[in-house]
């Protein structure tokens, strides 16, 4: 089973580094300099899931005090064809935890706090409150033990 180790955000602005350092995602989210051109929606939403209240929580009712603990990091990727992308990742050793046909797929990553989710590009843009148009670099790279490759939607993975 492939293990996702980290999410790397590329960009010219390092204010993201300070934000992710404050919220406590440790080595799982990194930023690095990149001058690659990009415009518009880059086909991903990065979710930080906390079991205790902060901005949002995965618990339905929670009366415990807020913590700075992030439980899961979920890069939700907007893809052209959810079924095809799912098969592409399964062929590279990524296990599936949830699958709703051509609508949504979530990876199973029991040894990592990073979980990949796949959604249609238009649906991901709608959830992000953005127009689905965009060009250039995706501005995100997934670090994994599956080795370096580029998926059918142009998202890069590295070892």
Notes on the protein architecture:
With 159 residues, the chain is of the alpha/beta class. The chain has three helices and twelve strands. The longest helix is centred in the middle third of the chain and has 10 residues, at 82-91.
Brief overview:
The protein is 17% helix and 36% strand. The protein has 159 residues and is an alpha/beta fold.
Brief descriptors of the model:
single chain, 159 residues, alpha/beta, 5-stranded mixed β-sheet, 3 helices, 12 strands, 36% strand, globular
Q: Write the H/E string, N to C.
A: EHEEEEHEEEHEEEE
pLDDT < 50 stretches: none
Query: Which percent band covers the strand fraction?
Result: 35-45%
How far from one another are the termini? Answer: 15 Å
Mean pLDDT: 85
SS elements, strand count? 12
Number of helical regions: 3
Overall body shape = globular
Numbering strands along the chain, what is their spatial order in the largest sheet?
Answer: 2-1-10-12-11
Instruction: Kindly report the oligomeric state of this protein.
Output: single chain
Taking Cα atoms only, what radius of gyration do you get, to the nearest Å? 15 Å
> Major β-sheet, in short?
5 strands, mixed
Q: Determine the fraction of residues in helical runs and give it as a percent range.
A: 10-25%
Given helix and strand content, the structural type is alpha/beta
């Amino acid at each position: 089973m492939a293990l996702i180790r980290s999410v790397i955000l590329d960009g010219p602005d390092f204010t993201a580094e300070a934000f992710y350092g404050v919220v406590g995602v440790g080595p799982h989210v990194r930023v690095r300099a990149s001058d690659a051109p990009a415009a518009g929606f880059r086909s991903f939403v990065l979710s930080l899931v906390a079991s205790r209240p902060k901005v949002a929580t995965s618990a339905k009712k929670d009366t415990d005090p807020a913590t700075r603990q992030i439980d899961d990091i979920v890069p939700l990727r907007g893809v052209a064809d959810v079924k095809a992308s799912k098969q592409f990742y399964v062929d590279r050793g990524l296990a599936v935890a949830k699958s709703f046909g051509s609508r949504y797929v979530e990876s199973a990553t029991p040894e990592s706090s990073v979980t990949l989710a796949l959604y249609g590009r238009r649906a991901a843009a709608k959830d992000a409150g953005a127009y689905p148009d965009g060009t250039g670099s995706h501005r995100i790279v997934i670090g994994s033990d599956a080795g370096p490759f580029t998926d059918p939607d142009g998202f890069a993975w590295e070892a």
